[in-house]
Amino acid sequence: MRKWIKLILTQSNIPIKLTMKLIFCFAFLMLNYSFPAFAETSVEDLLDRVDELYRSDSSHAAMEMQIVTENWERTTEMEVWSRGMNDTLIKILSPRKDKGIKTLKRGNQMWNYFPKINKVLKVPPSMMMNSWMGSDFSNDDLVKENTLADNFISKLESHPSEPDKLFFIVLRPKEDTVTVWGKISISISRADLMPVEQIYYDEQGEKKRVMEFREIQQMSGKMIPAVMEMRTLKKNSKTLIRYKSINFNPDFSENIFSFNRLRRK
Length: 265
Known about the structure:
- The radius of gyration is 23 Å and the shape is globular.
- It has 2 domains: 33 residues; 225 residues, Clam (outer membrane lipoprotein receptor (LolB), chain A), CATH 2.50.20.10.
- 20% of the residues lie in helices and 41% in strands.
- A 13-stranded antiparallel β-sheet has the order 6-5-4-3-2-1-13-12-11-10-9-8-7.
- It starts with a helix and ends with a helix.
- The protein is of the alpha+beta class.
- The protein contains 7 helices and 13 strands.
- Strand 5 and strand 6 form a beta hairpin.
């Protein structure tokens, strides 16, 4: 803007009154039309964006999950279908020993199908916070039983280290929310409204897990972080989930989230 004003002021053939009018009009446009949606973003809007970041009316994704511990590493290939915030189907494609295992979530209920024993086992609510497939992500993380905006009391605070660059939201669970977390904090970029970091605390306020969002890119016409890294602090382990592709609002059969489909190869 300074360069633009200097350019106007150095043009001797422009009357001073017209020059001032041009500067005023330019300043007005900058103040009123630069990122208006970002300026008016509420805490609820920010949380809805995080909840719906990888979802739409429907979605179909190919993903890779890499688990890294002190003693071993494992990479899992997955195919994932979702419908809104209520329905999710995850199918394991590799490694061979896990191929065909499926996780189905409908509403607030969840089931796992194990092809080697040809059985469907329901996951009780008490196990939603348990590890999924040995990763640092819980069952709840993968299927999003809890939505942040609906299940947590949120407060927008000043970011402890980068208040000019990041929004900082502190969430505490409502009384009827089933969760082991006493507090969750989320850092969101002011520039593009993308999540940067999510920290999980226990009921005593001790930091337990840290999730980072990286490699923002456009997929299916939507900007998303292609990589999520979850670190469990005391276990000294981490899990990376990488989106290899995702298609938003695809057409697929209504019965894809049925029990009959769960048993199919």
